[in-house]
Amino acid sequence: MPDRAVVITRPRAQAQPLAQAVRALGRRAVVLPLLEIAPLDDSAPLRAALAELASCAMVVFVSPNAVDAAFAHLDGWPAGVPIGVVGEGSRAALARHGVTDENATIHCPPDPANSDSEHLLASLDLSAFAGRRVLIVRGESGRELMADTLRAAGAQVAPVAAYRRSVPSLSAALAAELDALLAGPNDWIITSSEALRGLAGLVRERDPATGLARLQAQHLIVPHARIAETARALGCDRITLTGSGDARLLAAIQSQE
User: Fold this and answer.
1) Which residues pair with residue 219 across a beta bridge?
2) pTM of the prediction?
3) CB 98: neighbour CB atoms within 10 A?
4) Cα distance between residue 107 and residue 189, in whole Å
5) Tens of pLDDT along 198-240?
């Protein structure tokens, strides 16, 4: 176990706190960002949408990145405007900006094992949004389920992009790091289906013959059932599904000892 790494694949800015917690458990943490997060070239549409927060029946943040990107343009949160998030990571991001259940209404799926748009929507009284404005803060691309379901319920949905995400290119340094990490068994924390698909593409590019097979031999720790489904579709079967939140990810790491 001492040489077995915990590979944290979150964007770099979000990976460091988890990496510190992993090291506090006595494990070796390797930060390997599989998604690069960048600001938009033009933030005017985002700033315009945020200027109208007071008119919203709810504002949905699809990820911690969405929270951080929005609050880069905010001094605080307007009183009385409810928030929707799909997981504990976004709730924690809100807390870093001073927004908690004590000073705001935050809707979140009740079961951390099912932290996704489907379960957030199921927890809401959708009829309450008919004829009312709902802002969805998200990346440049993503699932349309949230917007489509709210529109079907009669809501006036306003999606706005807050950031851009992309899979890193296969540089010589990244190729060498992947070779080292795939040479033996490690524990990989994967918190995004997009990141996992990107990782599969990178290992195939690096080693078309055996790259995917080496990835399939790794142990994946994932917080959401949808990511587990993506992993199984890629042929991975060593999967631990934890539920949302760093505490559950860390508990899964401890169970490997």
Assistant:
1) 187
2) 0.78
3) 11
4) 26
5) 999 999 999 999 999 999 999 999 998 889 999 999 999 999 9
